[in-house]
Design a protein that fits this description.
This protein is an alpha+beta fold. It folds into three domains: 107 residues, Rossmann fold; 64 residues, ATP-grasp fold, A domain (Dna Ligase, domain 1, 2-Layer Sandwich); 109 residues, ATP-grasp fold, B domain (D-amino Acid Aminotransferase, Chain A, domain 1, 2-Layer Sandwich). It has eight helices and 17 strands. The strands form three sheets. Strands 1, 2, 3, 4, 5, 6, 7 and 8 form an eight-stranded mixed β-sheet that branches. A five-stranded antiparallel β-sheet has the order 15-14-13-16-17. Helix 1 links the parallel strand 1 and strand 2. The relative contact order is 0.14.
Length: 309
Amino acid sequence: MKKQLFVMDPVESINIVGDSTWVLMLEAQERGWPVSWCTPSDLFVEEQRAMARCQAVRMHPEAAPHFRSASAQVVDLDDFDMIWMRKDPPFDMDYVFSTYVLDLADALVLNHPGSIKLANEKMFALQWPEFSPRTMVSNNLEDIRRFGQSLEKMVLKPWDGNGGRGVVVTHHADKNLGALVELLTDEGRGYCIAQEYLPAIVDGDKRIILVDGEPRGWFLRVPGETDHRGNMHVGASVVACELSAADRRICEALKPRMKEMGLVFVGIDVIGDRLTEINVTSPTGLQEVLQLQGRALGPELLDAAVARC
C-alpha cells in the first residue's frame, strides 16, 4: 500500500474529461492505495517538518460529484509514500515556494521539487541547442528586431507562459513589434522569447509523454482555422501520429537527464524536428494517449514511481 498525496488545484475545479491528474488519482484508488489532496497554499512548515492541511478523497467516475472529500486534517508529509506535484501553471513565486516546502519532505515527490525549479518549460529546452529552433531571449526591442531580420517570420512568447498564452507570430518589420515586445516584457522589466517560425506547425505540435525518460505516448495538436496555436483550449484538434526518427533522437538525448533529475512524468513538445518545450510542472495528455493509442499510461507512471521508492 502506497499512500498518495496530490498537491493540485481545488478538486471542484477539475474537469475529469481530459484531466491527467484525475487519471493518476483514479489509478491509485483502483490499486487500493489511500489518496489525499491539498492545494499549494495548504502546505506549511512546523518545527522544520513539511506539513499539509489535506483531505482524504474518493473518486467516483460514474456520477457527480466525482470527488468526495473528507474533512481537512493536518498531516506530516512524511506520512505519505508519494507526493504528486500537479498544480497547474503559472510557474510563479507561490509555485516556487511550494517546492521549497516539498524539498523538506522525505517522501518521494514527483516530479522532483528541486528539478522543477531548474527546468523552466521553455528555457530548459534550450539546453539541447542541436534540437532547438533559432532563439533569442531578451528584454530589448532592438535585439529582437535585429534577430528577426534574418527570419521571414518569428514567434514571440513569454518565457513563463503556459497553454499558448501570449504567443504571437510576427516579423521584424511589423509596425506592431514594439508594442508586442513592450507587452511581453512589461516595458523591459522582464524577458520574452523570440524564435524562428516553424512552418511545420500547420501539420501540428506533437506532444510526447516521457515516463521516466522513455517515450510512451504521443499525439498531434493541429491548429484550427482561426488560431495559429497548437493548444486544445484555443481550438486545436488532437489526432493520432507516429514517432519520427527525429523524435526518437530527441527522446534519446533527453532520457539521461530526465532520469537523473527525477522528472518521471514529462511532456515534450516537438514541431517538425525541433524541440520547443519540456513540460515538467503538470504535464497533460494521458487521456488523449488512451483515446488515440489505446495505451493506459496511468499504471505505467505509478509503476515508475514505485520503482523509485
